[in-house]
């Protein structure tokens, strides 16, 4: 019933972009004898929330598609469409849910208006970093909860990338105290946007393709996007002067592959494993790419373009952390919501205890 209600509400938006639900292709029919395919190539469509081939994020979607093609020996081919090519960026979720595309690539916090707890599987303010997110999802029960959340909509989620710790964002004025946050209109999605609102700011949700123009023209006063590698590619240094860190709102953002369940289950078991394992490989590769590229991009922003790199004041971060913790405690509405929240917080607290004597201690010693 939940899925029918959800999909029923998508009719108008799907029609607006010329989408129709896909029937399973003839090439996806299994034989009754050997559970194999008839030899035809299976073609899937992937829609994304990123510009086509955009550094890091768009490249990650392309890399995932290439992996599936190669790992399947060419039996399953995925064609990637960037944001706006087939559907608008923030309609990727709907198009996969109704079967107009077999896969999507984005970030779960974009779907907060549809699934209240979806942001927990992308980024939580002062939450899990990339290493911890992978631990929670793959070995802490997080992925099972994520799949349970999406299952009524006929979707299968998989982690398919991570940016690592992001930057706090681009600002056209300095942030010296919480007073400077009041009334500040900022592009910031997910739970970070909720914290920003409670802190007195004005959060704005918009796709990445609109960030530069909105910041340059004053439609917004500040914007977070990702980090140096992506932000340099977007030219955001031309639209704002101050570049703040750390990314309190996105400490380790997981990117997702969303897969139409009917399309997935129509595949033979070996191709199902290809799709799953390709997502896991792409998940690790994106984090490696950002780790390798961010520092050089940051040097370019500061040394070549004169960007003013600034740390958010400690008292501002402390206040945002207090607001964040209060906000988290109010998120759970259903029994599943409560299980997601409790699992996340338990893993966060245990990982923090371990990292105090491992990662954090080591960083302190190395510096």
Could you explain how this protein is built, in words?
With 367 residues, the chain is α/β, with parallel strands linked by helices. 44% of the residues lie in helices and 14% in strands. The chain is built from 14 helices and 11 strands. The protein has helices at 2-8, 11-16, 57-71, 92-97, 130-139, 142-150, 190-198, 211-216, 228-234, 261-265, 269-304, 314-328, 335-357, 359-366, and strands at 42-48, 76-81, 103-106, 155-162, 169-171, 185-187, 202-204, 222-223, 242-245, 254-260, 308-311. The strands form 2 sheets. It has a 6-stranded mixed β-sheet. It has a 5-stranded mixed β-sheet with strand order 2-1-3-10-4. Helix 3 (57-71) packs antiparallel against helix 11 (269-304). The termini are far apart. Mean pLDDT is 91; it is low at 11-35.
Brief descriptors of the model:
single chain, 367 residues, alpha/beta, 14% strand
Helical residues, percent: 40-55%
Shape: globular
Secondary-structure element order, N to C: HHEHEHEHHEEEHEHEHEEHHEHHH
Radius of gyration from the CA trace?
21 Å
Please report the distance between the alpha carbons of the first and last residues.
55 Å
List low-pLDDT spans: 11-35
> Could you tell me the number of beta strands?
11
| Average pLDDT over all residues | 91
Strand content: 5-15%
Instruction: Output the structural class.
Output: alpha/beta
Biggest beta sheet summary: 6 strands, mixed
Oligomer classification: single chain
Number of helices: 14
> Strand sequence of the main sheet, in spatial order?
7-6-8-5-9-11
């Amino acid at each position: 019933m939940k899925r029918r209600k959800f999909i029923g509400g998508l009719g108008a938006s799907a029609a607006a972009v010329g989408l129709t639900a896909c029937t399973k292709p003839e090439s996806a029919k299994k034989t009754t004898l050997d559970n194999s395919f008839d030899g035809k190539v299976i073609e899937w469509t992937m829609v994304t929330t990123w510009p086509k081939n955009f550094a890091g994020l768009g490249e990650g979607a392309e890399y995932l598609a290439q992996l599936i093609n190669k790992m399947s020996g060419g039996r399953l081919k995925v064609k990637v469409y960037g944001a706006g090519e087939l559907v608008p960026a923030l309609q990727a979720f709907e198009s996969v849910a109704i079967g107009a595309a077999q896969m999507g690539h984005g970030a779960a916090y974009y779907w907060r208006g549809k699934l209240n707890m979806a942001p927990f599987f992308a980024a939580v303010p002062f939450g899990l970093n990339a290493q911890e997110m992978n631990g929670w999802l793959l070995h802490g029960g997080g992925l099972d909860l994520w799949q349970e959340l999406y299952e009524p909509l006929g979707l299968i989620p998989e982690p398919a990338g991570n940016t690592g710790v992001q930057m706090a964002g681009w600002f056209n004025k300095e942030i010296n105290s919480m007073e400077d946050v009041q009334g500040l209109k900022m592009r910031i999605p997910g739970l970070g946007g909720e914290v920003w609102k409670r802190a007195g700011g004005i959060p704005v949700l918009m796709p990445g393709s609109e960030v530069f123009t909105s910041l340059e023209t004053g439609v917004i006063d500040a914007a977070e996007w990702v980090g140096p590698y992506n932000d340099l590619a977007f030219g955001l240094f031309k639209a704002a002067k101050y570049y703040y860190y750390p990314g309190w709102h996105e400490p380790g953002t997981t990117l997702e592959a969303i897969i139409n369940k009917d399309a997935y289950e129509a595949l033979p078991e070996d191709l199902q494993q290809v799709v799953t394992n390709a997502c896991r490989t792409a998940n690790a590769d994106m984090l490696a790419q950002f780790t390798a590229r961010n520092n050089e991009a940051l040097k370019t922003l500061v040394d070549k373009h004169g960007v003013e790199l600034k740390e958010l004041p400690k008292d501002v971060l402390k206040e945002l952390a207090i607001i964040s913790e209060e906000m988290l405690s109010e998120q759970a509405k259903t029994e599943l919501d409560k299980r997601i929240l409790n699992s996340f917080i338990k893993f966060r607290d245990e990982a923090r205890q371990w990292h105090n004597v491992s990662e954090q201690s080591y960083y302190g010693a190395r510096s």
